[in-house]
Structures are given as structure tokens and as C-alpha cells.
Amino acid sequence: MIIGRIEEAKPGLVLDHHAFRGDSTAVALPERLLELAAFLFEEGFQQLLDVTAVDWYERDPRFDVVYHFLNLTTQDRLRVKIRLREGQAAPSLTGRFHSADWSEREVFDLFGIPFTGHPNLERLLMWRDFPGHPLRKDFPLDGGDAFCTGDTGTSYAGRPCSMEL
Amino acid sequence: MASTTHSFERLDDHRMVVNLGPSHPATHGTLRIILELEGEYVLRATPEIGYLHRGVEKLGENLSYAQFVPLTDRLNYCSSLMNNVGYAQAVEKLLDLRIPPRAELIRVLVSELARIGDHIICIGANAVDLGAYSAFLYLFKERETLYDLFDLAAGQRMHTSFTRIGGLFRDLPEPFMPLLRQFQESMPRAIDEMERLLTRNPIWVDRTKGVGGISAEQAISWGYTGPCLRAAGVPQDLRKAQPYLGYDSYDFDIPVGTTGDVYDRYVVRTEERRQGLRIVDQCARRLEEVGGPVLVEDYKVALPPKDKVYTRMESLIHHFKLVMHGIEMPVGEVYSATEAANGELGFYLVSDGAKSPYRIHVRPPCFPIFSSFSRLVEGRLVADVISVLGSLNIIAGELDR
Amino acid sequence: MAENLLDDCVMTTRLDAVLNWGRRNSLWPLPFGTACCAIEFMSMMASRYDFSRFGAEALRFSPRQSDLLLVLGTVTHKQAPVLRQIYAQMAEPKWVISVGACASSGGIYRTYATLQGIDRVIPVDVYVPGCPPRPETIILGAMKLQEKITKESFRDRKEHLEAFYRSWDEQQARQAQGRTEFQAVRDMVVEAGETGQQRIW
Prior knowledge:
The structure holds three protein chains of three kinds.
Chain A lengths: L1 H8 L4 E7 L2 E6 L4 H10 L4 E9 L7 E8 L6 E8 L5 E2 L8 H12 L3 E2 L29 H4 L16
Parallel strand pairs in A: 2-5, 6-7
Antiparallel strand pairs in A: 1-2, 3-4, 4-5
Chain B lengths: L14 E6 L11 E7 L2 E8 L7 H5 L8 H5 L6 H16 L5 H29 L3 H22 L8 E2 L2 E2 L7 H23 L3 H7 L7 H6 L5 H5 L6 H4 L20 H28 L16 H6 L1 H12 L6 E10 L2 E10 L6 E5 L2 H6 L1 H5 L4 H11 L3 H5 L1
Antiparallel strand pairs in B: 1-2, 2-3, 4-5, 6-7, 7-8
Chain C lengths: L1 H5 L8 H10 L4 E5 L3 H9 L22 E5 L7 H10 L5 E5 L1 H5 L20 E3 L6 H16 L7 H19 L4 H14 L7
Parallel strand pairs in C: 1-2, 2-3, 3-4
Helix pairs in contact in C: 2-6, 3-6, 7-8
């Protein structure tokens, strides 16, 4: 399997790996991500399908940036994760995978994780001066809009807006 | 618009910036393209998205797994059922749950019908943009029959929310199969009629052949999947490559193009509709033989039937727990992908055991395709921008989420 | 009397009745389609439901040439200033039908990004509920608008329009301070929400 080949050719590149429900996940160091991506590209994982992030706000390092690779020849998939602290930047994969372009911009927009080496790191889904990064866990669902939460005292339709189940 | 997220340096006299704004007849869904033109030639096309970003992923973190199903309908709203199926597959993968065979059959049947519907809209809208209004009207007549079929099956024309975790909402009612047979007879005639109008029409060919092409390596690098990738010459289809829902037991072909231009995408989509009808035919035959439930009988996951809820204590408690708390999920993460009409629709679910997902991310097929838009139209005419935009089938609902 | 001599070739009526008759039977819609409701609108324009029976076949995507703004689909906070600009560019008389739950009230999206109803930013005449509403429902909404137009007088709409243009000036003032139009409108919307007011116009 691919993780075995990585450990053989480049020992120490993968910090941790596990499999769950048929998905293989490898955890790598942010500093060596470009090296890992280059190796995966040589091994046939030539399509980077998606870059996303998860905010584990009670953990340090806070963020997981998650990459999903696909090997079109063997139809193998691999998930690669790197762990970043608040404010730490990730290396951009746009040099080798064009699909990283917008995916990394989206992660920057919604989580506030910068990517070094990205040609155009600007917000993608929200607007330029939007305050905050929406998908962080400390950003409220309604974005601070009192009309939505019903904190005005005269809430819309007389009922408080709440997502509590 | 007064300001943009882009700032332009002072342009010389030959260049003009034109805004193909968020409100435009040819932008299907809301997206914005800022074109830098020199006369009629496009020097650069910068897309700007986010006009339909509704916060679905964050909302999903506050809803239970079952409550997220209606939100998936509204991702790719032209083929809502495929999103339902894709999401249900992801949650069932996380739960390691097998659904009953009849549920699998019906999921394949409605997915293929939704795929045909999506391609109808894509080609219809593309044709309308280029002036071929009749093709749109003929195709929409078939889409109305599809709406009647979905209405019978799920109770709603477009946003069906047909799947449940563990199967389907309900079995197909009596009038479904006769109407399906009628559709199976009328649809091939409609596709033929549309082909007579478009495929060898010199105007259509002139506007679409050689326009917006992309090579196979570039398409792979840009993250293309689905008909746009197949039109570029890469025979990648998750239904054949990584089969799910029993697709490996069906007999169908995958159309593959050569140059990846607008014409090839049109031909690939037209042929996919014919192949979809083949699969629908096989499903319809098998449905007569395969019976059984359409929802798994594990009441920790799926609601028990009402007569049991009213007569047995355990069923009542299961119902209560499922509605008030939701499903007991294992801790872990999965990425599950299905072949939606536009390409690989992926759901990345991270669960920490709570009633809502900790993180739910949708990998939309048209997101990376649209990111390569500038590459496809550089050096071409403004009119080609419209042809290419229509052929990529950008659905803002899934692009922005 | 003179009318008896004129036979059937002349009809007497009131000015506002005949103008309203002309306006309601020749509505030129601007389909401001953002999401799924636009697909139901496409069905409505197609042969089975056929909106052109009501005189509204001439779709004009330019606000300068249309008089009915059909808002079809979710309007997000990023789209709100676009909607306001399109509404401001339309010439009077102009009407707005808010089609669908998302345009009427935010729909199922109670989030940071979605405007909780377009009536927070522009005046609305008819709300069509549904998610998405069936084409017949949208046609019913158009018929209700036609009834409303029948009963209109020239002076009715002045207050709403004046309020809207005052809020437009306020938006321009905030933009002059350096905010993007998106943040200017969002600030106005959130401030109105905090004071208990539903709308910014």
C-alpha cells in the first residue's frame, strides 16, 4: 500500500497513519508536506481532489488541514493531514496541483489559515472586509445578527431564533 | 459595482474591463466573471464566487445527521436526488451499514433519472444562451415528466429529500412504473429530436467545436471529474472505477471525448443520457423481482414503522431517541464519493460521537472546474465565454454551498 | 348623449383604471434567479405552465427595461447590495415578487451568510412561499400582484420608494468611508436588527 511505500522510500515523513472504514489517513509534518506531495505525485496520486480544514479548538495544535488525493490508475485514495497552530501557515501545493488554488483560498477565507507560496491568497466566498472566519468554532452561526437570534426583545414572530434541538 | 475584491492598475487604452455580473441571463446561478478585453478578445477572465454561500457546512454542525438531508437537496438543485444519495452513502459508510437490496435498486434508478434531468438542464440552458430556444422547450417537456416521477416517488418535484440514513423514505407507489415506462418511450425520441436540432447544426458546431478545450493532463491537474474530464479524454467514472450501490452489476458504457471542448462535453452528456436510460431499463426489470423493505430494520438508525411505535415499548423508545437525540455515531472520519451528474461529489464527515457532525464538508464537482475558467477562455472571443460557461454546468448551489 | 352617437368604438373609463389594466397585463419580468427557485421559474416559462399567458413573456434581464423584479432563490449578504442596485436602477412603476422561502424570510438557512428575507433591504409586494414553490404557486403570486396593481393609485408607492432611496444614500455614505458595499449593507442590516427593526429602508 502507499503508506508502506512512503515509509520505505522516505522514512520519518509520515508521523502517524490509520485506516477506518476503508479510508487510509496519513499525518505528516507541515514542513515536509511539499516533499510528501512530490512523492505522491511520482507514485501516481496525480489528482488532489480537495483541501479542507477542521477546527479542533480545544486542542493545540488547533487546526487540521486535510488533503484528499486520488490515484487514477490504481483508484487508490489517500487522506493526508497536517496539524497547525493558530496563525501558523501551511505550504501551498499550487505549484504542482492546480486544484489547490481555490481550495486553499477557501480554507484561508473560512478558517484563517494562511498558505505560503499561493499566487493569489484572497477571500473566496466571503467579501474582502468581512470580519472574522466563519467556520471557526468560536464564530457564531448567525454571525452576530440580533434579528436572527431574537435578542432584540421584539423578536420576529414572537419566538426566539434558536438552533437548539 | 463600486468596489471589488480586485484592484486594477491603470489600464492602457486598448483594454476594457467588463463585468459579467452576478445578475446576468447567462450566469446559471449567481457568479461573477470580470473580463479584461481587448476588443472582442478575452485577455483574462477572473471569476468571483460566493454570492450563494449560505453557510451550509456550519449549519450542518448544528443539525443532526437526518436533518442535514434537506440541505443536501439544495446543493446541486438540478439533480437533488444524487446529492441525497451521496450524503446517505457517506453516513452509512461511517456507520458501516448495509442497506436492503431493494433500496439500493431504487437509489440507482432515481439517481440515473436525476442525472438525465441534470443533463437536460445543462444542455437546454447552454442552447438557450446560444439562441437555440426550441431545444430547451422540447427537453423541458421531458423534465416535466421527470418531475411527475419524483413527485410520485418522494412527494416533491425538485427537492425530494428521498433518502434516509439506512434506506429510503418510502417504496415506489403504484402509478410510478407505468409512468416510468411512458418516460422510457418518450425520452429517446426527445433526445433524437434534440440531436436533430443541434448535433450537426452548423451554427451549433461553429459555436462549440474547438472552443474551451483542455488537455487530459491539465484537466487532471485542475481537479476535473465527471463529464468535463471524460470529454477531455480520461475514462474516469466512479460508477465503473469504484463501484457503489451495485453499479458493477449493470451493463452500460462510458462516453469519452477527445479534445475537451464544448462540443465534446455536449456529446458526452447526450450519450450519458442514453446510457442512463439503459441503466433505468435494467433497474425497472430488476425491481419486479426484488422485493423487501426499503429501510434498514435497525431501529437505532432508522425510524421504526408507526404501528410498532404505537404498540411496542422498545419501538417507542427507539423513536423517541432517534427524534430527540439522533443516531449514535461512532467517532471517526470518512470521505465518501459518488459519481454525481457533474462529477465526483464528495462528503467528508468528521464525527466525535455527538448528535451533529463535528465537521461536514462537501466537495463540489464544479468547484475546481470553475477555478480553471480563465484558462479555458483566454485568447478567445467574448461570445465563447458564454458557450464555455454553459457547458461547464456550474451550479452555484454546490459551488458556494 | 354624445356617447350614444359614438357607438362601440369609444370606451369611457378612468385614467388609473386603464393604466393599471395596461400595467398588469404586460408585466415585463426581470428574473433575478439565484438558486433553485430559478429552475421552477424555468419550468414556469416552459410549455406546461406557460407564464406568457399572463402577458409576461418578455423577459428582460436589464433593469432599465423591466418592471417586475422576480427574486428567485436565496439572497445572501454578499448578493444583497447587488439586489439593491438592480432595484435602484429600475424605473418606476416597479414591483417585486419574492419567490420562495429563502427570499421571503431566509428559508432554511438561518446563518451568518444568508439575508433573512429580502424585505430587509428592498420593498416587496408579493411573497410566494414554498421551497421551491410549484410553478402554479408562482403564477398565483403573479395573479395576486395583478389584483394589487388593479387597485393601485399613483400616490401609493411614494413612501416606500422614498424610504428606499434614503437608505440607498446612507449606503453610499458608508461606502465613502471605505467599506465595501457588502459590509456597508450588512452593517446596516445588523444594526437595524439590534434596534428591533426588521428593515433598513
